[in-house]
Amino acid sequence: xxxxxKISFSPPDVGEAEIQEVTEALRSGWITTGPRTKLLxxxxxxxxxxxxxxxxxxxxxxxxxxxxxxxxLNSATAAEELNLRILGIGPGDEVIVPAYTYTxxxxxxxxxxxxxxxxxxxxxGDPVTHMPEMDYDQLEGMIxxxxxxxVVVDLGGIVCNYDRIFKIAESKMNLxxxxxxxxxxxxxxxxxxxxxxxxxxxxxxxxxxxxxxRIFNGLKTYCGAIADxxxxxxxxxxNFTTAEGGASTWRxxxxxxxxxxxxxxxxxxxxxxxxxxLSKTKLGVWEYDIIGPWYKCNMTDIMAAIGLRQLDxxxxxxxxxxxxxxxxxxxxxxxxxxxxxxxxxxxxxxxxLYLIRIPEIDEDERGILIExxxxxxxxxxxxxxxxxxxxxxxxxxxxxxxxxxRYDYYHNLISLPLHTLLSDDDVEYICDSFRAIMKESxxx
Length: 444
Ligand SMILES: Cc1ncc(COP(=O)(O)O)c(C=O)c1O
Description:
This protein is of the alpha/beta class. 38% of the residues lie in helices and 13% in strands. Helix 1 packs antiparallel against helix 9, helix 2 packs parallel to helix 9 and helix 9 packs across helix 13. The longest helix has 35 residues. The structure holds pyridoxal-5'-phosphate (PLP). The site of pyridoxal-5'-phosphate (PLP) has 13 residues, from helix 3 and helix 4.
């Protein structure tokens, strides 16, 4: 089979509107963190319905009615790390992370000095969505007096069973030892947050799941408004992009003002400096203090310009992804191939990744199938190589033999291209090629 057709795996869908907005940002004279970043934060808060005041409002209007409960940063990795730092997590603490994730979920906790404990996944993933969710019984058994956070990953855009995860954290409240350190503004805030929560924090890695929702506590709730703290990724391959970029958000904490938490993210992401470039533009206002020797991971207005125009289109982008998923589902169903179930009566995914598991093949045969897709000009991928099989993690989480379900899920896994630059004709071509490859390989 030889073809001139080239189907990329996930190119960014950036149009004229984004280009225009970036040009305007460049011409405006304000290119670092400024008005466009602040507007994107408010609009994202409105979109995921967090920090909403007592009025009902549409996400594109009245954005000022949403409190500052979203902070835009330069990546999800930075957002994940700042979420843990704001929670006061550091050396001596344990953070539980699923063995099924990308390195950033674990490395953020490692950067904070915490010890990471890895949980295997359920055999074949969640019985309904097939998403590789954590083995919740194993998770429960791992919680100790040192556990400070469980990081949950909504892989592929599918929202985990947060009701179950919160219940587990609540059932272990007796083991929880809140931080009690007030040496600086950061430890003071972390101690108050831990005390207010009174249990292990639920921290969501929603790198893939902006716009996904789930019934939580009986109500449809968007990712970003479910976990105690959440991170999103706006990397170039994500559904919603600012080239690089990400955001943090959190749930209202009784007795702690959103403004105080927002301010701490500003400090942590800007050298600990108490005045950002925008506030220093006021005439005569030059003086500043450094509250802590912190980090530099703010979002620029050029990135936010892309995001503002992406957000206008985002609901339609999600719908388009869903149409493609339905086409792929019908091919998988013809051949009895397990695929992620992105929509259930409980949950609507953000349709980020399309993972399939080909029955009765080993890793080498999976490699041959990936080559066959390549012969048809179709780029595929594997999400992800298990952390215990990567050089850095072998020493941190032990060998892959300790995570049998994780390995089993990975060995026959392929991700198909899923993005909004695929035309109807491209999707038909992928489906026809997929069928032909499965027939040649006698699958099903
Ligand atoms: C599950 C997960 N978490 C975190 C990240 C890190 O995102 P970023 O590149 O924005 O730091 C990624 C990136 O692909 C990811 O897939």
